[in-house]
Write a structure and sequence with these properties.
single chain, 96 residues
Length: 96
Amino acid sequence: MAQNIAHSDIKGATRKEMRSFGQILKRHGAMPTKDGPTVRTLRLGADDSINTKTEISREMEMLEMSKNVLEHDAILSTVKNFHQLVKTILSMSQGG
């Protein structure tokens, strides 16, 4: 996204998007197995993005970034609430 915004002033520059999370995991051989997740650091490269052949619009990129921030915040809030719920249940089961 930052690259798209940086190139938005270049006439004819086209958008790049990241492949889906699942596609990236498959490409790097990091898919979870029946024994659990594979823990490793992924190094993303040029092959992990797709050139969409759509001209870049700074306004659309900024809207997409805002959407990503909102989704991230919603997911983070859900995880925090779940974590708090688990802590509460564990403390209740221990008599406290």
